[in-house]
Amino acid sequence: MNQWTVLTKETNVELLNCFAKIDSVFYRQLHTSNGSNGFKGTSKTIQNDLIQSIDAVIFNEILKGVNSSSFFSIIADEATVVTVKSQFSITLRFMNNNNQHTK
Fold first, then answer.
1. What is the Cα–Cα distance from 50 to 26, expressed in whole angstroms?
2. I need a surface site. Which of 2, 12, 39, 94 has the fewest CB within 10 A?
3. What was the pLDDT predicted at 32?
4. What is the rounded distance in angstroms from the CA atom of residue 30 to the CA atom of residue 46?
């Protein structure tokens, strides 16, 4: 039903702490908990919501960069690993406003 893989608890906590460093309101919410009723951010629902939110932010930032560039390239690669799982990666390369390459 859900396409997102649930993060490990440690990875999720680290991700929450990274966001807390750049958002003071989130920091207060994360670190000012009322015992067991405080926000921990470790439930599967919260983890999946965070993954979807991060996905949307990253996608929109990439889209803005590509749309504002004069040109871009797409590199696609597929590989099957020893466990017979196929992995497909896509890389977008474009020039930002300062003429610096961005991947």
1. 13
2. 2
3. 73
4. 13
